[in-house]
Structures are given as C-alpha cells and as structure tokens.
Design brief:
Helices cover 87% and strands 0% of the residues. With 76 residues, it is mainly alpha-helical.
Length: 76
C-alpha cells in the first residue's frame, strides 16, 4: 500500500513538472523565430551540449565495463 502511494505521488509530481516544462518551449521558440541578436545560435549550442552529455556518459560507462571485463579475464 505504501509503495502504491509513492507511485501515485510520483506520477502526480511528474504531471505537474511536464506542465511547467512545456510552457517554456513556446518562449524559446519565440526567441529563435525572432532571432535579431543571435540568441538562436546560443540556444542551438545549448541544445547540442545537453544532447551530447548523456551520450558521453553512456560511452564512458561502456568503456569502463569493457575495461573491467578485460581486466577480470586477464586480457589487459
């Protein structure tokens, strides 16, 4: 019963977080569409940085896993 309460609570919190997040997207789109001062390039660079970091972490974990497997097999 306690786990179900926490699950419902997390679902409600996620629902409210997405409502706040989607409100910001229209503001960013408006800035990019009326790109007079070059803010669009900065927003695009920020998107690339936010996109690249998770891939970097996954690659780092994969290399660490391969290194550990090779070390355990005495192949290094």
């Amino acid at each position: 019963m306690k786990n179900r309460f926490y699950s419902v609570l997390c679902a409600v919190v996620m629902l409210f977080i997405t409502q706040v997040s989607s409100a910001q997207c229209s503001m960013c789109r408006a800035i990019v569409e009326t790109d007079i001062s070059g803010k669009g390039a900065g927003i695009n660079n920020g998107i690339v940085y936010l996109m690249a970091f998770p891939y970097f972490l996954v690659a780092l974990m994969a290399f660490g896993f391969v290194y550990k497997m090779r070390k355990d097999a005495k192949l290094v």
